[in-house]
Design brief:
InterPro entries: GCIP-like, GCIP-like_N, GCIP_C. The protein is mainly α and 354 residues long. Helices cover 70% and strands 0% of the residues.
Length: 354
C-alpha cells in the first residue's frame, strides 16, 4: 500500500504541521551525536566505588523508560491531530533525556569490569540508540497524520532493543559475559560440524539438493562430487572441526566451574579466552567452505593449519589461566594431541601437492 502522500484526495498536511516536527529534527541530530560517542568513547573510571547490582538496576530502568518514551512518541504521531509545536518539543525532550540516561549508565561501567562485559553492554546500548534514531527518522519522513507500517516496525524495534537488557549475562561480573560469549561460539561451531557431517553422509553428491542433472547435465563432473582421496583428507578436517567443538565445550565448562572475576588479572584472563575463542567459529567456517568440491587440497591445508593454530592458542591460554587447575590439565593435553594428530594427517594427505 502506498503511503498516501501522492494519493488523489489525500488530506493536505495541516498548516504548521511540518514546523511542529522541527524539534524532532534537532533531537535526531542529538541522538546521532550520542551514538557516535557510545561507539567510540571509553567508559570512565568512576570515582565512586562501582556496584554491579546498582548498575544493572539503573540500566534496566533507563531501558524501560526509553521503551515508554518510544511508545508515547509513536502514538502522538499515529493519528490526528498532530501534536502542537510545544507538545512536540516536550516529547522530543523526553526522548533525548531517556537516551542520555541510557548512555550515562553505560559510561558507569568501568574498564576494570572486563572488556567482554563492556562490549555486550555497549552493543545493547547502541541498539537502543539506533532504534530511537530509526523511529524519529520514520516519523519525520512519513506523511503527517498517518501511521505507516514503517512506524509500527520502528516502534517494535525500539521495544525489542530495550528488552535485550534482560538477556544480558549478570552473573559474576565478566565471568557470566565470557560464558555467554563462549556459548554463542559453541552454537555456531556445532551447526557447522552438523552441516558438514550431513553433507559427507549424503553420499557422492554434496550439491544433490540444488543441482538437477536433466537441466544441467553435470553428473559425473569432477566439480560436484568428492573423490576417494578428497574423502580421506576431509575426514581429518572433520576431526579438527570436532576438536574445535570439544575445545569450546571444555573451556566453557571450566569458565563456569572455576571462572572468577575477583582480580584484574582474572578478569583479563577471561577476556583473553573470549577473544581467542571468537576466532574459532570464523576459522571453522573457512575450513568448511574450502571442503566443498572442487577440493583444492592446498587451500584445505592452509585453512586447517589456521584453525589448528587458533585451537592450540585457546588451549595454551586456558592452561595458563585460573580456570584450569591441575585437575583440568588432562583434557587440555588430550585435545592438544587430537589437534596435532588430525593436522599431521592433513599434512600427509596433501604432501604430494606441495
Amino acid at each position: 500500500a502506498g503511503s498516501g502522500r501522492d494519493a488523489p484526495g489525500a488530506p493536505a498536511a495541516a498548516p504548521g504541521a511540518m514546523e511542529a516536527r522541527e524539534p524532532l529534527r534537532d533531537v535526531r541530530g542529538a541522538l546521532r551525536a550520542v551514538l557516535a560517542r557510545v561507539r567510540e568513547g571509553e567508559p570512565g573510571e568512576g570515582r565512586e566505588p562501582f556496584e554491579l547490582p546498582r548498575f544493572w538496576d539503573a540500566l534496566g530502568q533507563t531501558f524501560q523508560v526509553t521503551s515508554q518514551e518510544a511508545t508515547k512518541l509513536s502514538l502522538a504521531f499515529s493519528r490526528p491531530p498532530v501534536p502542537s509545536a510545544e507538545d512536540c518539543r516536550k516529547l522530543s525532550e523526553d526522548v533525548q533525556n531517556a537516551i542520555l540516561a541510557v548512555a550515562t549508565v553505560y559510561y558507569w561501567l568501568p574498564k576494570g569490569q572486563g572488556t567482554t562485559l563492556r562490549k555486550m553492554v555497549r552493543d545493547a546500548t547502541t541498539e537502543v540508540v539506533e532504534g530511537m534514531i530509526q523511529l524519529t527518522d520514520t516519523i519525520l519522513n512519513a506523511p503527517v497524520e498517518s501511521l505507516s507500517q514503517e512506524q509500527l516496525i520502528s516502534t517494535g524495534g525500539v521495544w525489542e532493543a530495550c528488552e535485550q537488557v534482560s538477556n544480558l549475562p549478570r552473573g559474576e561480573y565478566n565471568q557470566a559475559a565470557v560464558a555467554s560469549a563462549l556459548t554463542a561460539c559453541l552454537g555456531v561451531v556445532k551447526d557447522a560440524v552438523e552441516e558438514m557431517e550431513h553433507a559427507l553422509v549424503e553420499g557422492q553428491d554434496p550439491y544433490g539438493d540444488i543441482m538437477e542433472d536433466e537441466e544441467l547435465g553435470l553428473r559425473g563432473n569432477r566439480d560436484t562430487y568428492w573423490s576417494e582421496a578428497d574423502r580421506q583428507l576431509l575426514s581429518s578436517c572433520m576431526g579438527l572441526m570436532k576438536a574445535s567443538k570439544a575445545c569450546l565445550k571444555k573451556v566453557l565448562g571450566a569458565v563456569k566451574a572455576y571462572g572468577k572475576a575477583d582480580s584484574p588479572e582474572q578478569i583479563a584472563q577471561l577476556d583473553d579466552l573470549a577473544d581467542i575463542a571468537n576466532e574459532i567459529s570464523p576459522s571453522v567456517d573457512e575450513l568448511a567452505l574450502s571442503m566443498y568440491p572442487p577440493v583444492n587440497p592446498l587451500a584445505v591445508r592452509l585453512n586447517a593449519a589456521k584453525l589448528a593454530s587458533v585451537l592450540k592458542k585457546v588451549l595454551e591460554i586456558a592452561k595458563t589461566s585460573h580456570v584450569c587447575p591441575p585437575t583440568e590439565e588432562g583434557w587440555v593435553q588430550f585435545l592438544n594431541g587430537a589437534v596435532d594428530h588430525n593436522m599431521n594427517k592433513v599434512k600427509n594427505f596433501t604432501q604430494g601437492q606441495l
